[in-house]
Amino acid sequence: MKGLVIRSTGSWYDIRDEEGLIWQCRLRGKFKFQDLKVTNPVAVGDSVYWEIEDETKQTGLINDILPRHNYIARKSVHKSAHAHLLAANVDQLIIVATLTFPRTSLGFIDRLLVVAESFRVPCIVIFNKQDLFDDETKAYQQELLDLYNQLGYLCFTTSSVTGEGIETFQNLLQGKISVLSGHSGVGKSTLVNTIAPDLNLRTNNVSTFANKGVHTTTFAEMFEIAPDTFIIDSPGIKELGLSEMEKEEISHYFPEMRNLLNECKFHNCLHIDEPKCAVKDAVEAGDIAMSRYESYLSMIGGQDNRR
């Protein structure tokens, strides 16, 4: 039978069958030994073939995974050469950021945008909690909106208090599978509850929405907020290592740098101290934002992106 993986807790997976019933399933032993450079062969969002193991207990066995059209992964905490799958078959990644209470760093936003680019997942940036901002903060925020919009990313503002941007948020989710990402406290769960009030109890009781410093494990869950409309929240995305990415590749996932790569003197230019570097020239000319270049250098240096 065919099913959709809606929750992963490590060794067990909640599978929604074609009737809408939920079954607790585990992998057949052979799956764990497939030649995959991942710590978890099945991810939330995967479509699988499975069979009933115990109808009374509603348990089953996963026999096969259907081909994915994309996925998002981070570096494994325990195995350096492996990746950890966060979600599969997603339509978009939505970053929820705030400029205060708490402040989301531009380095964090840029890292998520690079990850989305590398996995070819469309990305949207939401600046939440508009009701808390003074004129000076709003002016700075407008600069950021202009910056990211010019780079081709859809950005907009929201407030669960005033209702600003809520309809836009709801429309963007419609008919899609969306991964929500953002630091604890930015208002992700409040935004979701604003458009899907019936999820309130579940989000309060699910650790993925609490996002309380979960570093080494990732229990992702998918919620259906409307017919054919799903959100996935995964705390592990906060500590994203740049999985499957060499230093020479990182600039390829900055749209403003990608356009200049053929103009550097060296084909493997890292845009740090090489001569005749088109990217550095663009930074000096103001054509590439200094904040974006600093984010790039941070990623090249493997520095912490969470501040």
Q: What does the model show?
A:
- This protein has 307 residues and is an alpha/beta fold.
- Helix content is 27%, strand content 24%.
- It has ten helices and 13 strands.
- The strands form three sheets. Strands 10-9-8-11-13-12 form a six-stranded mixed beta sheet, with helices on both faces.
- The longest helix has 16 residues, at 135-150.
- The radius of gyration is 20 Å and the shape is globular.
- The model is unreliable at 201-217 (pLDDT under 50).
Which helices and strands appear, and what pairs or packs with what?
Layout: E1 2-8, E2 13-17, E3 22-27, E4 47-54, E5 59-65, E6 71-75, E7 83-88, E8 92-97, H1 106-118, E9 123-127, H2 135-150, E10 154-157, H3 166-173, E11 177-181, H4 188-195, H5 200-205, H6 207-210, E12 221-226, E13 229-233, H7 247-250, H8 255-258, H9 278-285, H10 290-300
Parallel strand pairs: 3-5, 8-9, 8-11, 9-10, 11-13
Antiparallel strand pairs: 1-2, 1-4, 2-3, 4-5, 6-7, 12-13
Helix pairs in contact: 1-10
